[in-house]
Design a protein that fits this description.
Helix content is 31%, strand content 36%.
Length: 87
């Protein structure tokens, strides 16, 4: 998976957030904007090509304040949407 696909989806506001990711972000007091920012300058550190319904990846990046964030994303190539699975 290419991080550029996830970045493009974020920039075009084509992001779905799972209930699990929402709960984890709230628990960590992390805004979606901070999670998105971490991807914009982050890197894929693990790929999960066999995940269903779409391949996913673990992204590591920092917030604006420099705090590290790990997020798991999937990307649907058919509709060009990204899915945030967990934070």
């Amino acid at each position: 998976m290419q991080i550029s696909d996830i970045v493009a989806a974020i920039q075009n506001r084509r992001v779905r957030i799972t209930d699990h990711a929402d709960a984890e972000a709230r628990g960590d007091r992390l805004s979606y904007e901070e999670a998105y920012y971490s991807v914009l300058q982050g890197e894929v550190i693990e790929d999960y090509p066999n995940d269903k319904p779409y391949p996913s990846c673990l992204v590591c990046g920092d917030t604006v304040s420099g705090d590290p964030v790990h997020t798991v994303w999937a990307f649907n190539p058919d509709n060009r949407w990204a899915v945030l699975f967990t934070v």
